[in-house]
User: Fold this.
Amino acid sequence: MFTFLLAPFHYDYMVTALWTSALIGGVCGLLSGFVTLKGWSLMGDALSHAVVPGVAIAYLLGLPFAVGAFTSGLLAAGAMAFVKMKTPVREDAVIGIVFTAFFALGLLLISLFPSRVDLKGIIFGNILGIATGDVVQVVIVSAVCLLVLALKWRDLMLFCFDPNQARALGLRVGALHVMLLLLLSATAVAALQAVGAMLVVAMLVTPGATAYLLTDRFSVMLRIGAALGALTSFFGAYLSYFLDGATGGCIVSLQTLGFVAALLFAPKHGVFASRRTLRRARAQEAAVP
Assistant:
């Protein structure tokens, strides 16, 4: 009766898309906890767009797209750090200038060599048509990111929460800053295949923001974010088969629905919970003679 629900598992390309999406989503969800705590949502957006020229150049030179994307992301991060140190311009303005410049360069390269570069794949992702070599790249990037986070998550947590305290405790804040940028760049490259440059920022922000509403413990927040990222990515890819829609759009739409649900129904920080708390406070004030 429900055999049609198993239809996606009959195709190798769908099975690959499902587990690859879940892997990428889990890594992005884990990292999104640090992005949320640090307030680096704009940084994630910047890096996701800054990888576009690197991907275009990699395609033109016949190199793996991950090499070009990662290099481009590092150059963008370095450019942002340099401009911020050398000028009094606010950080959000610096980020906006650099990432739009890199994104514009990528679009220019794509327009100059349209037959060599897959614009739609870069902008919107193409997880259903991901090649074996790209799957291997995604697995390697994800494994490295997970290993680094497993070893350094406490140091990164302290750096994101209070850099001055981290410095006072003897941690190398500069190295942690660079490490987090490297992880963001690598994860943006991995997620590029799933949802494209336009939606990578959602995968790097939404799961962490949702988990932030559900718990006050950072370790629990990381686990919730990783689980939300993996599950929404898996079921987003699964639903895209039946809806015949964009996989990236399905994934991010599910993540957004999860955030809206947490915003409304979270037991402590949700809208309804806040209203109940306010009503109780007012009732207690009214009861005081």
About this structure: Residues 3-287 form a domain with the ABC transporter involved in vitamin B12 uptake, BtuC fold (CATH 1.10.3470.10). The chain has one domain: 3-287. The mean pLDDT is 83. Residues 16 and 128 are 8 Å apart (CA to CA).
